[in-house]
């Protein structure tokens, strides 16, 4: 039933998997298509969907850090004004040596997104032109958006903390005692010692 | 003019009374608090009746308003603006972000306690403080000036090494000019 409903979406997936090897695609829902490709295919897939499948608008590019699986996932989010379909092109990169080809010749705005991802995740884009520093200044730690960057530890080292009031009470406990309730076990770890 | 303590005291009283009624605020907005300044200055709350008005450059201003969170990158600019200001100069910390980090308490890139980096004369709490609270804070500052207690700039000059050490802890690449005030 779903396949009858999403004819144009299914057509995009068929066209892409017919053209490229090792490409897995699926229709997420109406007007939402998701494909995963190898990282070496990214430039050709992006140029193909732009020129042949009318995905002319580059909405966004983002990165997901899959720490447990030891890879980064880059997501290129595209929009076709003609088909009214959003296409997510995903690819996985090795976490140890995160290098991928620069594709800002296809959409100029990718330059900005890629520079941001380079700074925040430490992913290198081969041939990317632009200053190494983007938003942060004099940053010499691990890229801060990586999940193994310990923010709590870092702020304890670098910044000052204002000590709380003497006799400050735990809000959760005060409310619980006032209304005669018990704090659930899962909320107890957030309580003040 | 005889240069004895008594007459100096009289001069100070007159000076402070005059300073109190003309506070020129540096038009430098950081964070979200800058949006509270236009209503404070314009007809509804009309801060100019207290002698508070905006001024374009640090060298002409008396008061530095730090209106919200400061990224370490912005802190560098704020310190530079503060050091350019001429005496007498005062700092007002605005909102909970300057007091204890506010909602950015666990951010890796914003400072939490403003008074470790530049001397703060008056804190206004709130997130964000409304124009009434802002004017209240300015009146507090005027009271301090009148009593001769708003001496943040002197404190800064005396403890410059301590402040510098704190500043250099977050601003790693220190390439700022030294002002010989």
Key traits:
heterodimer, A: 193 residues, alpha/beta, Beta Polymerase, domain 2, 5-stranded mixed beta sheet, two-stranded parallel sheet, 6 helices, 7 strands, 25% strand, extended, B: 181 residues, Rossmann fold, 3-stranded parallel beta sheet, 7 helices, 11% strand, globular
Describe the structure.
- The complex is a heterodimer of chains A (193) and B (181).
- With 193 residues, chain A is α/β, with parallel strands linked by helices.
- Chain A has a domain at 2-134: NADH:ubiquinone oxidoreductase Nqo5 subunit (Beta Polymerase, domain 2, 2-Layer Sandwich).
- Chain A is 28% helix and 25% strand.
- The model of chain A has no long low-confidence stretch (mean pLDDT 89).
- Chain B contains 7 helices and 5 strands.
- A 3-stranded parallel β-sheet of chain B has the order 3-4-5, with helices on both faces. A two-stranded parallel ribbon of chain B has the order 1-2.
- The mean pLDDT of chain B is 89.
- Chain A binds chain B through residues 136-138, 140, 144, 149, 151-152, 154-155, 158-162, and chain B through 72-73, 76, 99-101, 106-109, 111-113, 116, 166, 169-173.
Set down the secondary structure blueprint.
The complex is a heterodimer of chains A (about 190) and B (about 180).
Chain A: H1 2-5, H2 7-19, E1 24-29, E2 32-37, H3 42-51, E3 57-66, E4 71-80, E5 85-94, E6 99-101, H4 110-121, E7 124-126, H5 151-158, H6 171-178
Parallel strand pairs in A: 2-5, 6-7
Antiparallel strand pairs in A: 1-2, 3-4, 4-5
Chain B: H1 5-20, E1 23-26, H2 37-41, E2 52-55, E3 63-66, H3 72-84, E4 90-94, H4 96-100, E5 122-124, H5 131-146, H6 152-158, H7 160-170
Parallel strand pairs in B: 1-2, 3-4, 4-5
Helix pairs in contact in B: 1-5
């Amino acid at each position: 039933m779903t396949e009858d409903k999403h004819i144009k979406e299914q057509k995009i997936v068929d066209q892409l998997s017919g053209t490229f090897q090792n490409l897995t695609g699926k229709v997420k829902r109406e007007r939402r298509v998701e494909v995963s490709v190898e990282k070496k295919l990214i430039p050709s897939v992006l140029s193909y969907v732009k020129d042949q499948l009318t995905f002319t608008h580059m909405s966004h590019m983002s990165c997901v850090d899959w720490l447990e699986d030891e890879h980064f996932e880059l997501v290129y989010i595209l929009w076709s004004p003609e088909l009214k379909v959003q296409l997510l092109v995903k690819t996985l990169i090795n976490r140890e040596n995160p290098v991928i080809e620069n594709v800002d010749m296809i959409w100029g705005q990718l330059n900005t997104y890629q520079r941001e991802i380079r700074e925040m995740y430490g992913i290198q884009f081969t041939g990317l032109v632009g200053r190494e520093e983007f938003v942060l200044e004099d940053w010499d730690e691990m890229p801060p958006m990586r999940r193994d960057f310990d923010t709590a530890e870092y702020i304890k080292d670098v910044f000052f903390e204002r000590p709380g009031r003497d006799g400050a009470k735990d809000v959760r406990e005060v409310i619980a005692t006032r209304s005669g309730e018990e704090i659930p076990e899962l909320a107890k770890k957030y309580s003040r010692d | 003019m005889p240069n004895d303590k008594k007459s100096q005291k009289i001069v100070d009283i007159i000076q402070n009374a005059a300073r109190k009624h003309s506070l020129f605020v540096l038009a430098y907005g950081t964070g979200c608090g800058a949006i509270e300044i236009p209503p404070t200055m314009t007809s509804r709350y009309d801060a100019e009746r207290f002698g508070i008005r905006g001024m374009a450059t640090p060298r002409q201003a008396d008061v530095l308003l730090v209106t919200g969170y400061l990224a370490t990158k912005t802190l560098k600019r704020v310190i530079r603006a503060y050091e350019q200001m001429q005496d007498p100069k005062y700092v007002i910390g605005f909102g909970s972000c300057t007091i204890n980090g506010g909602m950015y308490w666990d951010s890796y890139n914003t400072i939490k306690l403003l008074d470790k980096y530049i001397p703060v004369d008056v804190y206004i709490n709130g997130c964000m403080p409304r124009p009434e609270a802002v004017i209240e804070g300015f009146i507090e500052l005027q009271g301090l000036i009148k009593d001769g207690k708003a001496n943040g700039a002197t404190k800064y000059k005396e403890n410059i090494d301590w402040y510098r050490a704190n500043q250099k802890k977050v601003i790693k690449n220190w390439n700022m000019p030294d002002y010989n005030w």
